[in-house]
Amino acid sequence: MNGSNGEERVVHELAMVVPKKIRQEEGNCVEVLVTELKKRGMVIDRVVGLADEFLKVAAPLETLGNAAAELHIRKPTRLGIDLPFEMQGSEAFIRQPDGLLFSWFERFRCYQYLVYGIVNCSGYDVILKLDGREFCWAAGESLVRRLESEGAIKQIFPLHDEFKRKELLQNWALNWWNFTNQPIDQIYSYFGAKIGVYFSFLGMYTQWLMFPALLGFIVQMVDFGSLQFLVLPSFFVSTILWAALFLQFWKRKNAALLARWQINCLVGPSQGYRFLGMEWSSLLFPKELIKNLGNEKSKDKKAYQRYEWFAYRKRFRNDVLIILSIICLQLPFELAYAHIYEIITSDIVKFILTAIYLLIIQYLTRLGGKVSVKLINREINESVEYRANSLIYKVFGLYFMQTYIGIFYHVLLHRNFITLRQVLIQRLIISQVFWTLMDGSLPYLKYSYRKYKARTKKKKEGGSSPGKFQIASRVEKEYFKPTYSASIGVELEDGLFDDSLELALQFGMIMMFACAFPLAFALAAVSNVMEIRTNALKLLVTLRRPLPRAAATIGAWLNILQFLVVTSICTNSALLVCLYDQEGKWKIEPGLAAILIMEHVLLLLKFGLSRLVPEEPAWVRANRVKNVTQAQDMYCKQLLRSISGEFASMTKPEQEQDSEQF
């Protein structure tokens, strides 16, 4: 039950795909499902499609509130303290930016609890029927899971809210005049924190790109004559400082966003952020260790240390396997492509070769991604987000090799800067065209093919022309749309994996070879402005509504961007050395020595800025301290009341005994 301006309206946010009713029969599983859903307090709307029937599910606020209370969902209150939700005290909890009591992630979690929580409480087995076939619903068994295993429920997926979807289309996807300005709060409310944080990062990144884009345009187009050798080092220093400051100020903005959305989390050393309230049951330690925790401290310590280092060894082993595979298998292929590209003279043939190479490497990378997923499944990680980050690191290693090794080949071996600039232009243009076609056309082609397949099947069954079978219902159109899933590791990541990977590869391309092609920053800025709108249209029009994820930052991608900044210091220093040392003798002359000193100074500045610029704004820290202080005061008062009550109950019988004696 969503609301606008204080008015509640029924919004069906979940859909179930079930078979069409062929005959009336007692004990039909679909009818039993609808009855049980209504008993749980949900509103059901049944829609008949071409080949299937759709159950649109909505939950009133009271139903969601009761589910949230049973799940013990912790929500921020007006006192600044996170407390388990209770429907009776709902007015004490802070509402979302869109005015709703629950976020999309919390609502979807409640829907899952309500739907999958339907169990057989009768104490005996129930016989259900589906098109003449009978099966048993055992006592204590989940009805939905049973129907899924029997094929009675084909799919369960979230539905778009048409009112909010059209509002976002108008204010965001189709509003080209705003360029990088986006309704981030609306995006967060509709899609969840992970997608909201990603688009906030993309918008800020594009805004910050305007400075190096303008500077790079001037450096590329203006002939400075004899001062050119001073202009490029100055541009190099400016881009490194720009990147270091951008990443630090992004951390500040990320912290401000989380504070504005009332998402409480802690800064961690390796993963960036970890949500408060993580219980022992969420950590992947053996149950025996947790059960015996505290019995014998010395043995517990040794057991946890052994288990910790065992997990590290498994992850280290898998990382070594991936690195060796990249060196032994992918590196020769990349060098062969770079060598063939160097000896070819025709620009058209080079362009075609690059396109063919990108298609082949996509298949090889997906193969490497499948291997990475299998290795990750054998690792010991604390949570799903840790596993997803492990996948990101491994797959990015594959893409790093395929994207940059050929460029390094042109720089270090041949020192051919003309060819290097051609390769950079082709990579930036081809990559942008490739990703745009993949984002826009592939989901639409899948959607069109599924509609055609459904109409053809209906034509064979009914014997009529396919023109008579039109898909009129919105829910059936949503059913035919593809999901927002990753190209690699679908079980661990969603579609943001591909979008973030594209962004990281672009960042590495423009940063690591800034001195060779300063104009790349301007191309990246134009590309990102288009990327914001195309991604928005993809999410709102051509794909289903994504499943909400609880990630509060861009996760492992931030560490990858930090790595690329450090790498760009080394690569651009090497480019400047190649420009100064035209004879190829690699002598430490005054100019080369200055480059070496500048490299070390930039590395120090990079790590120094991370300490000088605070990762959180002062008002965020002040609010957190205020909330902690209020929580301590409240808990202290509550503890004093409980102690006073217990002391009074203990002393009262003694006083009564004394009075009886007198």
Automatic annotation (TrEMBL):
Keyword vocabulary terms for this entry: Membrane, Transmembrane, Transmembrane helix
Anoctamin transmembrane domain ranges (all copies): 187-625
Chief place where the protein resides: membrane
Pfam families on file: Anoctamin
Membrane topology: Multi-pass membrane protein
Keyword set includes Methyltransferase: no
Transmembrane regions: 195-218, 230-250, 320-339, 351-369, 390-412, 510-530, 550-579, 591-609
Annotated signal peptide: none
Domain of life, source organism: Eukaryota
Subcellular localization: Membrane
GO cellular component, one term: membrane
Keyword field contains ATP-binding: no
UniProt-recorded name of the protein: Anoctamin-like protein
Taxonomic classification: Eukaryota, Viridiplantae, Streptophyta, Embryophyta, Tracheophyta
